[in-house]
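Below is a complete specimen:
___
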Amino acid sequence: MSTSKEYMQFVLDQLKEFPDVTYRKMFGEYMVYLQGRPVLLVCDNCAMVKKLPELAELMRGAPDGLPYEGARVHSVLDLEDRELVRQVMDILLRVTPLPKRRIQQSK
């Protein structure tokens, strides 16, 4: 099952207080970026964050989620908990590097 457009709009609505939120559709699912940094996987109408040491305390009671077969286990983020989302996004902005740009090689 893939993520619905309605759920993706809900995710974006929950993140509207943050500047520069973008997303990319990948294989029927989505990666959400905050200021160019990949912060959320949205799969099967569920928002997930990487299990990072910096998030361990905040996400201690969160259920586990598997974004896709073969992926590492992530933590499910309760997007309706505004304070939790704010804290998680603040941490992710600090610890998540910008993706490296791919350089195309000429033949």
About this structure: The chain has a mean pLDDT of 92. The first strand starts at residue 21 and ends at 26.
